[in-house]
Amino acid sequence: MPPEIYRRVDQGSQEIEPTLKTQILFFGQGRDMEQVCGQLVTLGEHPVARIRVDQTDEILHDLYPQEFPEGLTPIILNGTYEARKKYQQPILFLNDTASFDIFRQQYPEINIVGFAGYSFGTVTAAYASGAIKDEADALRFVVGRSRITAENNKENPGKLKSFAINHADERLREIQEEFGSEIAIKTSNRFTVVGGSFEAVDLTAQKAESLGIKTYEIPYNDAAYHTSLMGKAVPSLRELLKSIKMQSPHSTITTNNARTINRVGQTRSELATHIADMSDWQSTAYSIVSARNNEQLIEIGSPNGILSSHLERDLQDQYPTIKRGDLRKTILKVDIGATAALAIGAFLRLRAIRGNEPS
């Protein structure tokens, strides 16, 4: 599916203020890979993104000549559903880093004070923050992580599914206890991702739907991330990370459990273990918003701003006295030609909630 192309935008019309203290967010897996590949094709028309695409192809060919004889581009252009599912982690990493490259070029003075990533987005955040020192090492980790999770899923098969219910709802807890599924991601007030074996998740979903709770398949889901089924992948990830050159991030990283990390050992540990830990993204988002050194959030990589949409609705619930127009998600667009612009994410301004926090 081709991406939506906009008319070239005036940067000022987007209301991004480079001087504001900015938190960068990266989404993870769960995106429609056909759309992501279409997005990448269009991004490749921008000279800055083209450099990233060409470098990625060259590095992957040099590292894995048999697996990537021409890099990722043939898979992006003509890959089958199964190929794009298999290589979704490197494809998403390329999409989001290329988008970030363009964003940094168009807003070179942006005042970034921190990074966070939803699930796999933590890997992108580690690279963008400088914690993973170079692109080749980042790609080695992304490809290695992809292989490790695929192998783990063969031995411990499972899946994820999104439920339109708050994680604290007693109905969900009772259903999970009955069928043995787990809360994988606390996404927002309205959505919870449940994981576990195929049978456990399917039975949980069937019971939930019988109670009027809507459930949704997660596109291109290939494993029960953030559940105990991923535990056996952690030692292999730790071993892989020993060969990845890392350093302290130049801005703090907020983990999927609302901790801020800024040291090499902390980042290395997070990249190894978060795959098997329940992700409390809702608490992470709230901690970012409540930190007074964050004045705007910019989500990179997801054209419709999935994380921003969840957070916008949650903040409207938390601050009902604020006018909707004062706290709204705005689509982030970057210029890709003389007359065209492409959506690469979204942003939220936090000015409206300052002074309105609960006492």
Q: Could you tell me how far the N terminus lies from the C terminus, measured between alpha carbons in angstroms? A: 47 Å
Query: How would you describe the shape?
Result: globular
Count all strands and give the number.
Answer: 12
Question: Into which percentage range does the β-strand content fall?
Answer: 15-25%
In summary, what is this structure?
By secondary structure, the protein is α+β, with helices and mostly antiparallel strands. The chain has helices at residues 33-43, 47-63, 73-78, 81-86, 88-106, 121-128, 135-155, 170-179, 198-210, 234-241, 264-273, 281-290, 306-318; strands at 5-7, 21-26, 111-117, 159-163, 182-186, 192-196, 215-217, 252-254, 260-261, 296-300, 330-335, 340-349. The chain is built from 13 helices and 12 strands.
Please tell me about this protein's structure.
- The protein is of the alpha+beta class and 359 residues long.
- It has helices at 33-43, 47-63, 73-78, 81-86, 88-106, 121-128, 135-155, 170-179, 198-210, 234-241, 264-273, 281-290, 306-318, and strands at residues 5-7, 21-26, 111-117, 159-163, 182-186, 192-196, 215-217, 252-254, 260-261, 296-300, 330-335, 340-349.
- The strands form two sheets. Strands 1, 2, 3, 8, 9, 10, 11 and 12 form an eight-stranded mixed β-sheet that branches.
- The longest helix has 21 residues, at 135-155.
- The mean pLDDT is 91.
